Amino acid sequence: MSTISVTVNGRTYQSDVEPRTLLVHYLREQLNLTGTHIGCDTSQCGACVVHVNGESVKSCTMLAVQADGAEVTTIEGLAKNGQLHALQEGFWEKHGLQCGFCTPGMIMSAYDLLQQNPNPSEDEIRHGLEGNLCRCTGYQNIVKAVQYAAGKMGGAGEKGQDPTAETSGDSPGEAYIEDVASDKGGERSPETVVGSDEAPVAGS
């Protein structure tokens, strides 16, 4: 086992992982962040895209130990205070999904695109999403969803900006660390949470 410390969606987790564990399996199975999907295991479909230190990464191609010390953002980290991110809203408003399986990875790739190019053309959107496959929509409404989000975002945001970052002036001491125990004997030990009074309490 290796011990890693990873900040995911603004929370820092310390976990024991097997060296062979893929980042996508760590997120889904140990952190229970199942919005990141597994579609192919061959880096073809893009359903597993997350952001690592501000860069989009297919998490089926990266080991969890390689994310030690990194900041990771998953689809769960985009919405803030109960409000959908502009991209999530765009996929809803413009019917950019049918079965929805590809949607988390599609949105995360589109977010990376809009950080680099706040006002992309239709061709630039299609090129930016070439690494993400969809079997349902024919892509047209996905392009419309990204255009919708680009308009709502107004070109705001810089490359590498963490969409989960708080802007209310919270002090660093209010962050918390979650110690995620590895599975032992088929049962997962309770998580230990240390930090501010607002942090969730184990077993609550």
Automatic annotation (TrEMBL):
Disordered, as annotated region: 153-204
Sorted UniProt keywords: 2Fe-2S, Iron, Iron-sulfur, Metal-binding, Oxidoreductase
Stored PROSITE patterns: 2FE2S_FER_2
Pathway assignment: Alkaloid degradation; nicotine degradation
CDD domains listed in its UniProt record: fer2
Signal peptide: none
Biased composition (Basic and acidic residues): 181-190
PANTHER family: OXIDOREDUCTASE WITH IRON-SULFUR SUBUNIT
Protein name: Carbon monoxide dehydrogenase
Organism: Kouleothrix aurantiaca
